[in-house]
Amino acid sequence: MNNVVAFPTFPDYRYPMSSPLVATLLIAPAAQAYFDDLRRQYFPKERNFLNAHLTLFNALPDEQCILDKMQVLTES
């Protein structure tokens, strides 16, 4: 089961890469519901437009070798 998701973010010109990747960890449905509930309770309502999430990396270089390595690691 692949538990790591990486997706490109909006371009941030502070980084030399074209589109940094964010890697987040998928969590079990019961844990997701628990953390979503906490987020609704304690996170500022005006900024709460995402479900709870666990970010592993927030600015990986957008390079195929990194995506390939992440795929290998999540399959083992």
In helices, the fraction of residues equals 25-40%
- The largest sheet has its strands arranged as 1-2-3
- Name the assembly state: single chain
SSE order, one letter for each helix or strand:
EEHEH
Query: Whole-number average pLDDT?
Result: 78
Number of domains: 1
How would you characterize the largest beta sheet? 3 strands, antiparallel
Whole-Å distance between the termini? 9 Å
Unreliable segments of 5+ consecutive residues: none
How much is the radius of gyration in Å?
Answer: 15 Å
Number of helices: 2
Annotate the secondary structure layout:
Layout (H helix, E strand, L loop, with lengths): L3 E5 L12 E5 L3 H14 L11 E7 L3 H12 L1
Antiparallel strand pairs: 1-2, 2-3
